[in-house]
Each structure stands twice: as structure tokens, then as C-alpha cells.
């Protein structure tokens, strides 16, 4: 038997094997360098486990996958999509995409990474040299997402440090500024939380064409975010694997605390019912299905290349099928659980807003002597008599009716769901600073957990390129983080949130769908479904049955293709827009990205 070559220097899972070294240690005259690991038909070392970074244990792997998959999207994106896409009706396309697309693709990425023990670029190059573009495309999408994902972490840092107060009155978004000037007037037209978000946190510009200079405080927090990410991922899973014990477990503790507090608050049941009440007509909108597919990719971290990298650190005999099913169930339940928690708090917020609204409108009706209202009229009297009022009077005095449903429908405001709506609800909790601190600590841990996986997938792809394998991983990681920080400065301007919405709408939607479709086609029809099935059987002892074969080969690619085509048609018909803050009107104006049509 040939002797094993001695390892030289630290191993990070991306080393090369020189072909000019014989088994007996003598030199061949001409040397060629190739990747160590590969699938059938590719060259492999006898003991690849010695050359590839590995998880310290099953728990570390599971927590890393959970920490990566369960991210800000479960708190910020998923409830927002539910609000925008029909409440509980959105669960229908989400679960369909989960079963027919998410879980099968999840297993493809985990299994192919575990079998070949390579990153995204190496896997697709091994299957066929022409498929390396899938790995590059995945890396590019991952780069775009990493750019703006860390900006959200930046905003979390801003709110976290400003939450360190003694009382609710001291929270900076609890009241409007008292300067008797334009700031106080602008704040009074909106609300203290809205004003704080757009003026104090973002200092938003009127449109994307007038961004202004980078806001120094956002630049500082963005730098802090990238420094922390660098130190976490600089040594790969050897460093990041220790952090996941906190980033994966702490959010569940905070969610449970909020759940116990939330269900005891008035109005929480209305919020939860609003979450599950379906609006089935929304299912006819193709963008709802696109959002559902995208959310599956976001919530599971599919098509980023990160799962391939994580799978490559597993031993070849790991039961990846069981891991996929466990993580899928855990992730889906977490998304629903987090939505229940969020909507219970939003229901409480809506309840307090309705009470304030009713008190205000009773005073108006009493002042105008309408409907027999007096300043002492009760809320029950208001609810009974308001439907009987003359519609002309209602319109003349701009009365709304103060209903829970109206308040809940207006609860989600894009990225402002966490930074406007929830911060306003936190003011009603006692002690407010405590709830604010643990909420933003939860967002921070969720964001860092996902960012760790995103960066690992991107760096693993970079190290699949021969040139970079000769360089130190901390050096490459530092260069990548520095580059991302410099590019991310565009998000620190007054138009930063507008740019983030553009990236979120275009960089991480259709691109992910295209990459996922190409991944399925590459594995099923180029690598071969029978070969892939046998690989899983050899690794796990389980042979994928009819469900897997149908979803891999037919249903999954068909669904993704339909979503892709319908979404492209919809985007061509409808001009893309973004919401810009208008200080004069104190609202968000829809502005066309394409100002002229030829």
C-alpha cells in the first residue's frame, strides 16, 4: 500500500495534491496540480478526511445549519411576505415550494457536497467543466446578498446600542424632538418611531438619485459588523463553529420569552388570526409564488453554495437524508413559530392603536355634535353607532372606523417591520429597554448566524480556484470582507434603504431561482439521477424512492421554470419602483426606476 503524504502547513479543506510526487516520495519531472477530492471518475486521495476541514461533532454541524438557515428572514422577511401576499394564504405556496422544491434541492446540495467533499465551484466543475458557471453564479448571488445582509446587521447594531436606557421614556424613538422647528413638525405628521427610523437612523434622502454623502454613524456600525464577521469566519468552521452555539440557541430563548409575554397581551389573538386568515385571491398573482420560492431559498439557504460547503465537511458515511428532514421540519416550524410571536405582538400594538384612534374620533364626533356622541361616550357605543353615521360626515372629518383589521393590514412596512412597527410595540411593554435589548440581540444573533453561512459558502467557492488555494485563508477572508465593506458604503448614504430594497428585490430572487434550476438539471440529467441515487445509498444506506425521483427530475424543474417565466413576464409588464421618503408629505412615495419609456 502506498504511504500517505505528510501534511504540510495548516489544513483548511481546500489543499492541492501535486502529481509530481510519487508514492515513494520521488519526483516526477513534470508536475501538475489538481483538486484532491472529487466524485467517481475524478482523482481522490486515499484519506481525504485528513485533508478536509471537519465538524467537531454532530451537534456543531446541526447548530451551524440551523444558525445559517434560521436567520433574519424568519423574523423580518417571512412575516412581511405574509402581510404582502395574503396572510395565511401565503403558507400554501410556501409549503408547496417547501415539499416539492425546498426539501429535494436541500438534499441535492447536502448530498453532492458530502459525496465530492468540495465547494460549489469544485462540485460543478467535477460534474462537467462547462458547469463551473453555476458555482460562479451562486457565488455572485451570495456576494450581493452578503453586501446588504450585513447592512441589516448594521442597523441592528444602531438600535441595540441606542436601546441601552433605564426607562421607556428614554428610548430615543419614544417621542418626537422638541425643537419647535421642522424636525418637530415632520415628526408630528408621522410618528416618533417612523421619524427616528428615517431621520435619525437613516437620514433618508428624497430619492435614489440624490444619495448624499455616507452617514458617518452608519459607516462606523457597518465597519464594526464586517470586523466581527471577519473574526468569526477567518479560520473557517474552526472559528465559526464555536460561535454557532450562541447564534443558534439564543434566538429560540428570546422567541419563547416573547411568546409567553405576547399571548398574555390584549389583541394578540386578533393578530394571530390575521396571520392565518387566508386571502386566496392572492394565489393568482405570480409574484406571490416567486416570493414563496425565494423565501424557501432564503429560509433554507438554498442555491447559495453554503449547504454544499457545509455538507463537504461531513464524513462520507453521514446520514444526510436524516439531517435534511430534521433541519427542514425545524426550519419550517421556526418560521411559523416566529410569525405567531411577531403577530401576537403586532396584534397588541394594533389593539393599543385602535384604542387611541377611538378616543381621538370620539372627541371629533362629540365636538361636531354628530350621532349623539359626547366626550364620555364609551368604546362600545362608538362601535355600535359608527356604522350608522352618515358617510358624508365620515369623509368630511376623515374618520377611519378604527378597526383591528385595518391596523393589522398596515402593520408591515418592508424593512420597517422590525425597525418601525416592532419598536413601536416594544414601547408598550414594561420595561421597554429590556425588551428592546433582547429583541435586537436576537436579530443580531440571527443575522450573524446566517452571515456566517453565507460567507462560508462564498469563501469555499473562492478557494476552489487554484490560485487562491496557495494563499492563507485569513488573508483572503480579510480581502473579501474589506471589499464588501467598501462596496457596502453605498448603503450608508441617504439612499441606502432604497438600494437595499433594489438588491433584495432583484439580486436574491430570480438569480436564486435560475441557480436552483441549473443545479437540478446538472445533477439529474448530466451527473445522472441513478448515479446520484446510488451515491446516497452508499453514504446512508437509504435509497431515495418515488417522491424524490419525481420531485428531482420533473416536478421541481417544472415549477421553477414556470415561476421564472411568469416572473420575467410580470417584470417586463410592470415598471420596477421603490418607496422614497417625502419629508414634506411624511410618507413613502412610489418612484419609477425607469423614468422614461421608449
Automatic annotation (TrEMBL):
Main location: membrane
Membrane topology summary: Multi-pass membrane protein
Compartments (UniProt record): Membrane
List of residues binding Na(+): 67, 70, 74, 299, 331, 446, 450
GO cellular component: plasma membrane
Key words of the record: Membrane, Metal-binding, Sodium, Symport, Transmembrane, Transmembrane helix, Transport
Segments crossing the lipid bilayer: 61-78, 90-112, 133-161, 216-237, 249-268, 288-312, 324-346, 434-454, 475-500, 506-527, 552-573
InterPro entries reported in the protein's UniProt record: Na/ntran_symport, SNS_sf
Single GO term (MF): glycine transmembrane transporter activity
GO BP of this protein: amino acid import across plasma membrane
NCBIfam families found in the cross-reference section: Na_transp
Family stated for the protein in its record: Belongs to the sodium:neurotransmitter symporter (SNF) (TC 2.A.22) family.
Protein name: Transporter
